[in-house]
Amino acid sequence: MAEENIILSAQGIKKAYPLPGGEQFYALKGVSVDIPTGKLTILKGRSGSGKTTLMNIMCGLDQPTEGKVYFAGKELDSASDRERTRIRRTDIGFVFQSVALIPIMTAAENVEYALRLSGWKGDRQARVRECLELVGLGGRMAHFPTEMSGGEQQRVAIARAIAHNPKLVFADEPTGELDTNTALQVVKIFKELNSSQGVTIVMTTHDKGFMEIGDRVYSLENGELQNGN
Question: How far apart are CA 152 and CA 170, in angstroms?
Fold first, then answer.
């Protein structure tokens, strides 16, 4: 079997927060994960398990108390704040549970805005159309978020996240506010993006139903890794 290409590796990650009296609370207790390129990796766990803390550290929004994060072969946590910001803007995409679309912008304008923020140099209008068509919304480009269902809004958010060709997309509970059928449609889009576009996706979820869909699944509980595959 061919060896997997790992785009991100988090090794021995600990995250401590100070408590009154000089004590410390460890949200993460020595977690190590590898994210394979072009695959869907799932971080599973209940609220408070540490999965969102781990995701924030892996994308450079937060720094570990101990441990190292390597992204595309470079040590992320030792980079300057400015460099980490640049990486998040150009090399990483984000999908949020709350969707976070700009309500006064159409679907196309939301995606195009992300391209402008990333400094995209190509034909922005062509790329906007391409990405919205990839998620099945080529006919909804001129619609505002309030004119769309929750599932459609999340698909716009996915198009926005992949528009600038990021190396890695983080999706934090992207199906948390969707019904089961719509949630499955969203995850199906992730898998299609894996196969057709080579997009690497890391998704957090507390839904046990997605365990078999991920190419690699890590389960977290009380800041510790329970299993991985």
Answer: 19
Q: Which residues are bridge partners to 225 per DSSP?
A: 220
Task: Give, in order, the Cα–Cα distances in Å from 71 to each of 10, 76, 88, 159.
Answer: 9, 6, 11, 23
Measured distance CA(143)–CA(172) in Å, rounded: 25
Closest CA to 45 of 185, 217, 179, 201: 217
185-222 pLDDT, tens digit per residue, is 888 889 998 998 899 999 998 887 777 888 999 999 99
Residues 219 and 226 sit within 8 Å (Cβ to Cβ)? yes
Q: Which of 189, 106, 96 is nearest to 140 (CA)?
A: 106
Q: What is the pTM of this model?
A: 0.89
What does the alpha-carbon distance between residue 176 and residue 170 come to, in Å, rounded to a whole number?
A: 14
pLDDT tens per residue, range 59-74: 999 999 999 999 998 8
